[in-house]
Amino acid sequence: MADKPIRVGQLIAPFGPGSLYTDRRGIPHVVCGLDYWYMKHEPARGLVPCSDVAEFEILESRLSELLHVDRFRAPPDYRRVRKGDDPPPNAALTIPALRFPTWYRHTSTGEMRRFNPDSARLPPAAGGRWQPVRFISVCAGGHLNEFPWQEWIGCTCSGQGGLRIIDRGGADLASIQVLCKTCPPGSDGARGKSLSGTTSPPDKQGDADGAGRGKGRSAFEKAGIACPGERPWLGPGAEECNCPHPLVGALINQTNLYFPRTMAAILLPEMNIDDEAARARAELAKEPAYCVPKRMEWKLVSESEHSRIAEDVQRYLARRGNEFDATAVEEALRSLFEPRFNADDGAAVPAAPESELQTFRRQEFNVIRQKIDDPDRMPDLRVIPSEVPDDLYGIVTRVNLVERLCETRAFFGFSRLEPQTVPPSEMPDAAIRQLFRYPPVDIADRWLPAVAVFGEGIYLELSEDRLREWQQKNHSWLADRLSDDFILRLSELPQAMAPEGVGSREWASRFLLVHSLAHVLINQLVFECGYSTASLRERLYISADPAAPMAGILIYTSAGDSEGTMGGLVRLGQPERFGAIVRRAISRASWCSADPVCSENLGGQGSRQVNLAACHSCVLLPETSCETINQGLDRAMLVGTPEDRSPGYLSELVETYMVD
Q1: Terminal Cα-to-Cα distance of the chain (whole angstroms)
Q2: What is the pLDDT confidence band of residue 3, given thresholds at 50, 70 and 90?
Q3: Which of 51, 143, 422, 570 has the fewest beta carbons under 10 Å from its own?
Q4: H helix runs in 167-305, sequence order
């Protein structure tokens, strides 16, 4: 079992359950499932439950409503027991990880041997050392398997002691050969077989039976090797039989082996409750271990019994020196447990139905564009309106300084080979089946990992009048640049939250414009505020609904400490600084070292062909900073192309900014 440190936030992404983590000795491990969390290891009894799991409860009602799960829990931090001191609460908790792959290769002889996945030490290797093999196998269904060495070479030996890997050091997999020394002479196993073609996905490898017969099969499919459905993160014997997905070989350090599914929510205040109820709500929010079971009780009883629960909570608060009226407590509980978030009576109502995700995001949009400055009502969100710089007058209608925010990030599963989303309607069953060996029987006991982080940010909103005018003026250019096929591919991107059906050209151009502007600003802000690029994140608020359009960007940073960050990012949002930052950002975006190739309209580029003018030399960011994993970008929407600047949304300012 692994004994190496991982930060708590990394257990949400990128090292959640089912992921591969290579320690500093070069030994890969698979992070275990949720059955094994909140356990401590005792020599006599093995893994035993911790003393008080309620300490790790997190309350975020909006996220609970979206993902249909009542509980979130923070990953446990490791607390050492020092000699002579009383042990701290929940001491010595660890997240177990098992060796994977379990196949090792002798560095001198090439001999292959399997070891116990939870063994802490390996036996000595005479004349060399045992090194983990570089190859495993995966499928799009999320399974993680050992490489089928014997099946691949046709070995029928009862044992595995004769397997060898011969690596001739070539540039491709054809130079790596697997053979079996104990197979009868003249058999396929004795001759061996290279690994050529084993890592090619089915849709990129031609059919050996002839061209033009549709999607090709993987090398394992052609050899009659099916996915065994292994789930090593859930322990031995957790296989899923009859997996329908084709098996594909992979290297243990491939970046597409694990795509965590995460959802984040910014903690919002309830605007339409009185002051006493708001203060009671703020006090209750400080004690999630008490509120989480109360929320489940609130949901299970009839509305007539809510007053009884409110009286219990009133007495609980009174014992802690907080006296509140029972009516105010009941209103606070309803606000906390049944989130409404009608930001104000004048909030626009969409004309067309929106998805759950878009409604979820609109709740934040309606709140964060207002002034929020009342620590008693909402201690974890402070939004101060700022002046729009003169440079951006008519382009940006609102700049808000988000001096404090609390974000809850929840983990609800993962995918392999390609990012795949799970509709909220299928939650939490899809995540529970994937993350638990023995899923909780009681719905109230279901939970998912989450972490609460605190930070700051800058919110800006584009002018709707200017945006519509730009779209009308450049209608022909947009029609030529954004083909119907491109719009369809962009609409199918789950993270883009396209309108119901296929998105329109108005929506697609709006999305590309707002998203590209967010990336351009982040790339510039990292030079100004001192944060690394991976420390800044975007949050997009985009809708082309005619009655309730959105074109907002929140650029923020956060940290796990309860005090959050130091204010360096917010300071850059002040008008005397922000205008100059945008000026420099636009100047940098107007030219890319890969131009004119970068700006060419090739119909789409990137993994899903939903990028246009976007590359690593201009607007791409670390994938952790981007909501769509660097998809849905076109720098030309901002600054035009080198041949013609005029169609860009900021084309009138490009030349001025470059001169300045």
Answers
A1: 59
A2: low
A3: 51
A4: 188-191, 219-222, 275-285, 288-300
- Spatial CA neighbour of 410 closest among 27, 74, 36, 39: 74
Six-digit token pair at 356? Answer: 């759950």
| CA 629 – CA 12 distance, rounded (Å) | 16
- CA distances for 646 relative to 642, 651, 654, angstroms: 10, 5, 10
Rg (CA), the chain: 28
Residue 61 pLDDT exceeds 60: yes
Q: Which residues pair with 454 in a beta bridge?
A: 406, 559
Helices (H), 380-493: 429-435, 464-473, 475-481, 484-491
**Mean pLDDT value of segment 455-472:** 95
For position 271, what pLDDT does the model report? 74
Q: What is the pLDDT of residues 434-448, one digit of tens each?
A: 999 999 988 888 999
Which of 61, 60, 42 is closest to 50 using CA atoms?
42
What residues form DSSP beta bridges with 180? 163
Task: Kindly report the backbone phi and psi dihedral angles of residue 268, in degrees, each rounded to the nearest multiple of 5, phi listed first.
Answer: -115, 150
Provide the 3-class DSSP secondary structure of residue 559: strand
Give the residue carrying structure tokens 């396929």: 188
Minimum mean pLDDT range among 30-34, 145-149, 214-218: 214-218
Lowest mean pLDDT among 178-192, 260-274, 506-520: 178-192
Beta strands in 35-115 (DSSP E): 39-42, 46-49, 57-58, 71-73, 93-94, 97-99, 103-106, 112-114
Q: How far is CA 337 from CA 70, 345, 502, in A?
A: 10, 21, 35
Return d(Cα 502, Cα 507) in angstroms, integer.
10
CA–CA gap between residue 179 and residue 88 (Å, rounded): 54
What stretches of 154-287 show up as alpha helix (H) in DSSP? Answer: 188-191, 219-222, 275-285
d(CA 106, CA 104): 7
Residue 572 has pLDDT above 70, yes or no: yes
Phi, psi of 390, deg, nearest 5: -55, -35
Average pLDDT over residues 392-419: 93
DSSP class of residue 305 equals G
- What is the predicted pLDDT for the residue at 210? 41
Higher pLDDT, 201 or 288: 288
> What does the alpha-carbon distance between residue 20 and residue 579 come to, in Å, rounded to a whole number?
44
Nearest residue to 47 (alpha-carbon basis) of 15, 9, 76, 84: 76
Q: How confident is the model at residue 105 (pLDDT cuts 50, 70, 90)?
A: very high
Q: Is the pTM of this model over 0.85?
A: yes
Contact 500, 352 (CB under 8 A): yes
Q: And the tokens for 365?
A: 């949009």
Which tokens belong to 270?
């309830």
| Torsion angle, alpha carbons of 386, 389, 393, 396, to 10 | -50
